[in-house]
Amino acid sequence: MSYQNIDNSPIEVLTAQDAVQNMNPDQNIRVNRYETKLPIRIDLEAALTYIFGCVSGIFFLIFETKNDYVRFHAWQSSILFCVLLVLNFLFINTFLIHLLTLIEIGLIILLGYQAYINADSLFRYEFPIVGRIASDWVDAE
User: Fold this and answer.
1) Residue 17 reports pLDDT greater than 60
2) pLDDT tier, 80 (very low <50, low <70, confident <90, very high otherwise)
3) How many helices (H) and strands (E) does the chain have?
4) Is residue 56 within 8 Å of 77, Cβ to Cβ?
5) Which ranges does the record mark as transmembrane (predicted)?
6) Closest CA relative to residue 32, chosen from 72, 63, 3, 8
7) Residue pair 43/115 in contact by the 8 Å Cβ criterion
8) pLDDT at residue number 39
9) Distance (Å, rounded) from C-alpha 14 to C-alpha 7?
10) CA nearest 68: which of 112, 116, 110, 123?
């Protein structure tokens, strides 16, 4: 697909992978940072990474391979909710299980909302400690 600048010079629109593979310094290339592999909008995809805790995070890590914003939230969801899952097993027969459940529901709402509203700017809302790890892993991919 190609477009034209105001001065009628051609602009070719490519995916990120195509742009890297076809590096040509004489060509104007625009990369779609909002492109996803799944047929879902980026804001919904990022928010859905939190909906079922680490299960939905792992799902999006497996099936969403194009978008770093969604992959960041999938990593953050997977790491955070796996840690909370271990804590749930440790405190399964205590009153703390109810407190942990409320904390998890609150985190699903907070992090899902942040992922949804920040999708336009691709701002990564990093949860303390876990967010930095997730961001480093996505940047290293």
Assistant:
1) no
2) very high
3) 6, 3
4) yes
5) 42-62, 74-92, 99-117
6) 3
7) yes
8) 83
9) 20
10) 123
